[in-house]
Amino acid sequence: MSQADEIDYEIGGSDIQYVEIELDPGESVVSEAGAMMFKAPSVSMEAVFGDGSQKNKGVWGALAGAGKRLLTGESLFMTVFTHGGQGKAKVAFAAPYPGTIIPVHLPDLGGELICQKDSFLAAAKGVSVGIALQKRIMTGLFGGEGFIMQRLEGTGWVFVHAGGTLIERELAAGEELHVDTGCVVAYTPGVDFEIERAGNIKSMIFGGEGVFFARLRGPGKVWIQSMPFSRLAGRILANVPVTGSGQGEGSVLGPLGSIMRGN
Asked: What pTM does this model have?
């Protein structure tokens, strides 16, 4: 396992947060493409093929890292920000939608974290962004994130984004928690992630909570979000007025539009 850069950070904002990272000369941080908010002039940017970790050296290493990212649905490239000047310099990354940025020091968790495939925001250079395959067929098919999640490994800080309000739970050995599949942001490798049917047939069809939920069993730590992006996007799409319909909350005519059309 490669040694990650030691970085300092500060998280700001309330509804839509950002993380400001302070770099010493020669230190680097890697992020998803398009996540940067601002940077000092002495901080250079470089798009890299793969996950940006130091262990992916050479052509085959880069191809392996890029292949992992392709499987998780992310871009083949990541961006590395390196401080090439004197003193200290800062670079900041913004959350993609309202929520909470979670700072995680991987050594405190045994060097590994499993998270949603779209929740990774940034990390110290040297952290590997790989894949974690679900062990059970049913969990992979109906677990909300499919077979593939992201596996973050290394010795440094990583920053993961959760939608809405964040809840952290420490599960004792054998302790269980039932969670909506889309609300699971991340968990430590010791947590057993499986799916269960959401009650009887009537509850599954008319309960409005989906057909399955996630059963998380300790020991380990889990992070839960109150507003998954898929749920947020669904609510927005449901309230987008059809062009020319004169309906919807944003329509000037509002309910009058329906009356004028004879509805």
From this structure: 0.76
